[in-house]
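Task 17 of the worksheet. Students: predict the tertiary structure of the chain below and write it out as structure tokens. Keep your answer in the requested format; marks are given for formatting as well as content.
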Amino acid sequence: MHLKEATLANLREAGLPVADDSVFLGPGTVLEGCEQNGSEKNCRRRLAGQKYRVLMQFGDQIGDFVQVEANTREGRQTLFDEYDDWFGERWWMLPNPTYGSWEPALFNNAWDQPAAARTQAKRDALDYAP
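Model answer:
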């Protein structure tokens, strides 16, 4: 919960109406009976759904919207395909190309590979026009 005040201050600075008693479901939020796995958001989504009807979600990767069971390119693509109709209707993606759980999916989560091999796998995954 150490990020609550900084997060709310950032939202206010952007001109968003944020109440002093705003509910903050950031890292460290606990839902009894739900096992938190690292920074994934499944427990926080369940907690929000108990009290609120969520109309829109914003995130920078698929794991911000739904639990990623298989952190591989194929596993993530399966989720994108399954929920394709939700993007632009319920979910909005705000890209963050600098880091995220998508990154190790590009090299099959094999952190034991040399850094050069991981970098090459990421370069190979780029979709660009020369």
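Marker's comment: Residues 71 and 101 are 8 Å apart (CA to CA). Residues 4-97 form a domain with the Rossmann fold fold (CATH 3.40.50.1000).
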